[in-house]
Structure formats: C-alpha cells, structure tokens
Design goal:
The protein is about 45% helix and about 10% strand. By secondary structure, it is an alpha+beta fold. Among the domains are: about 35 residues; about 170 residues, 2-Layer Sandwich (Alpha-Beta Plaits). Strands 1, 2, 3, 4 and 5 form a five-stranded antiparallel sheet that branches. Helix 4 packs parallel to helix 5 and helix 5 crosses helix 6.
C-alpha cells in the first residue's frame, strides 16, 4: 500500500494494463469458444450432407422424373458442346496417297525457305516428323486423309515458331496414328462371363447385373515432341500463339514443358577478365609495350606553344553481361486435339 501511495501514476498505469489484459484474455477465450462451436456445427452439417448425397434415391416417380430431367439436360449440353467444337475445328479434306506425298514435299520446302529467311536452323532430315512418307506412300486413302490433317496441325506449330524467331529446332517427333499402322479401331470390351447358379427353393431370383456400355472415343491422340533453342521472348510468343484461338486454328494443348539454360555453370573470374580485356581493346601482349610515337604535327604544335586538342577516347569497359545472355533449351510436348465425329448406334451394332 505504501508503494502505491508513493507511485500513484505508475500504479494507475499498471492497474489499467492489468485490467486490459484480463479483458483481452476474456474476449479471446469467448472467441475461441465460439469458433470451436461453429467448427463443430460445420463438421456435423458437412457429414450429414455427405451422408445424404451418398444415399440412393427412393424409387418414386417424382425422383425418377427429376433424375430423367437432369440426365436429359446434361446430355443436351454435351451434344451442343460437341457440335460447337466440331464446327470450330478445320474440316478434313479427302486426299489420295500420292497427293499427300506431294503436299508433304511442298510444305517441307516452304518451311525450309521461311526458316532460312528468318535465320532459323532446322534438322538436316526435317520433314515434320513424316520422314517415312517422303520416299513412301501411306497405306490407303483413309490414312492419307488423316495424315494430311495431322500435317496441317504440325505445320501450323512450326510456322508459329518461325514467325516467333526461334533460333534452332533440334528434333521433332510425333505419335503415329492407328489408321496408318493398319490397326482396327478399339472395340468395346466384352462383359465378363458370369456363372449362373440355381436359385434355392423359396429364395428370390437375383436381379440381373446391368452391362455397362463402352463409351466411344471423343478425341484422337496426336502428340508432337519438339526440342529447340530460343530466347525468352520468342518462347513467350510461341506459348501465347498456341493458347490463342485467333492465331491457331487447331486445338492445341501443351502437355509438357521443360526449360533449362544453355549454360548450366556460371563463368569463371579469369574468363570474365579475359572477355573484358578483349572487348575493351586491351591485349595482354601489348600491356608492356612503349606508348606510340607522337605525330610530327602535334610535336611542332607543342614546340610552338599552341594548344593541341586531342580526341576524346572511349572509357574503358568495366562490366560485361554475365547472366541473361545465354539461350534457352526447351523440350515441349504438344497435343493436337482432333474431335471425332459421333458414332451412331446403328453403326455400332454393325
């Protein structure tokens, strides 16, 4: 008590701080209690909702009508989307095997000329990944038609790289189509054989197990793999062009992208010093040489007392580019998405 009387101001401040701390602790405790109750209520509601969603629908006419309505709306939305996608992709024009070979050679020549004009290096055996058809023909007209559409998609990607300013295309590979390998389209898997058992006397007959219908293929996989060297800006241009529907008429999706610097290790100090001396015009052999002789005119002017005006020499270079000047080595896998025409049920039965 004596200390409080002697230090009234300090005691008042400490009392207010203590009361505030007690009040803050009470508020935090009540907030934590409310949070715990809210979290417990949320978990209970979420568990109840999950249990309700996992239950089977009651076999009533009302549930059947609602389910049928939802399935019909979903089917209509999928059909509308499929129709829109089929109308947006470029049509496939029939072509013969010889016409495809001529088309391939013409496209290769055009891209080589465009790459040479853009200072882009191509592989020596560049043929868009269709090298086997430069000297050979497809199996039939159906394979030639599919390959022609495939070639158009690959050419659009390579042309995008040429326009973007890619410096070097090292390799190009593609996945083969089923039609060019002569493989028949995949058939729906046959249902597993079931063993029939005789029902016991008085037992109810088991319900037949519904056979799951095989879903027809929606897209045909067409993947090209590219390895090229470029700068950062051309790579950004290529990526933006592949994602832009106004610049790429084919549906494309970058499946895999791997980027690494052309130079994995940084330059050494000695290499930097040699490069700086080379760019600044200072040669190691000439560092101990005597200075050049003074011209005759300058010597006469100095002897007569006239002021000699010498040209300003460029400053010695004291910095060079260490990082950011190297190229990028890029590995890219691109999916050329081709949406297939819907298969009618009558065709499936055949």
């Amino acid at each position: 008590m004596d200390w409080i009387r002697e230090n009234k101001v300090l005691a008042t401040v400490m009392g207010i701080a203590l009361a505030g701390a007690i009040g803050l602790a009470a508020v935090l405790f009540m907030s934590y209690s409310a949070y715990g109750q809210s979290m417990e209520q949320f978990q209970t509601t979420d568990s109840s909702l999950a249990a309700i969603k996992g239950r089977k629908l009651a076999p009533t006419q009302e549930n059947l009508d609602k389910k049928t309505e939802l399935v019909t709306a979903y089917t209509d939305a999928v059909n509308n989307l499929g129709t829109a996608l089929l109308s947006l992709q470029p049509p496939v024009k029939p072509i013969s095997d010889t016409e495809f070979q001529v088309k391939l050679k013409e496209r290769v020549a055009n891209i080589r000329a465009a790459a040479a004009a853009a200072n882009m290096e191509l592989p020596a055996d560049f043929a868009f990944g269709f090298g086997e058809y430069v000297g050979g023909l497809p199996r039939n007209a159906e394979a030639a038609t599919a390959l022609s559409d495939y070639l158009d998609g690959v050419e659009s990607v390579i042309q995008t790289m040429v326009d973007a300013g890619v410096k070097k295309l090292s390799t190009i590979e593609r996945t083969a189509l089923a039609v060019e390998k002569g493989e028949p389209p995949p058939k729906p898997a046959a249902p597993a054989p079931t063993r029939k058992s005789r029902p016991r006397a008085g037992a109810k007959a088991a319900k037949p197990v519904p056979v799951v219908k095989e879903i027809a293929a929606v897209v045909e996989p067409r993947t090209i793999s590219l390895t090229f060297s470029t700068d950062q800006v051309p790579l950004q241009v290529v990526m933006n062009a592949l994602a832009s529907p106004s610049k790429t008429i084919h549906f494309t999706a970058v499946r895999l992208l791997r980027i690494e610097n052309e130079k994995q290790d940084g330059p050494s100090k000695s290499a930097i010093q040699i490069e700086m001396s080379r760019e600044s015009g200072v040669d190691e052999a000439s560092q101990g040489a005597p200075p050049p002789a003074t011209p005759t005119g300058a010597a006469d002017a100095a002897a007569s007392g006239a002021r000699v005006i010498e040209p300003v020499l460029p400053a010695k270079k004291d910095a060079i580019d260490v990082l950011g000047a190297e190229m990028l080595n890029v590995y890219m896998e691109i999916d050329l998405i081709r949406f297939l025409e819907p298969v009618e049920e009558a065709d499936e039965k055949k």
